[in-house]
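Shape is hard to put into words, and the shape of a protein is harder than most. The fold becomes a row of whole numbers, each drawn from a learned catalogue of backbone shapes. The outcome of that step, for a single protein, is printed below.
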Amino acid sequence: EVQLVESGGGLVQAGGSLRLSCAASGFSFDDYAIAWFRQAPGKEREAVACISVSDGGVIWPDSVKGRFTISSDNAKNTVSLQMNSLKPEDTAIYYCAVTSGSMCPVVVGWYDYWGQGTQVTVSS
């Protein structure tokens, strides 16, 4: 059974940093792409970053490029999202998700399993 558990969210001031972790079990990192999405109140869920065997680490929104980094620790079965220089507009619930395959799709509907999410709040 695939399980994803996010942690590391919280309240931080603008300009600060947070490191989110996704503890994964029930599948091999070699066979799945693992992504981070976020959803702000009243907005659609947005793809933020993904890591896979073929694509390596991918950061999608221009608004977070240069500030967010995705990495994986296969020995610990965790995927992390390092978020620096946080802005109030980064406030959202952040979700970890996985899909089978070696590439990173950006479409929400392509992901098969989701974690429960972790709240990130950035104050101005």
Notes: The chain has a mean pLDDT of 95.
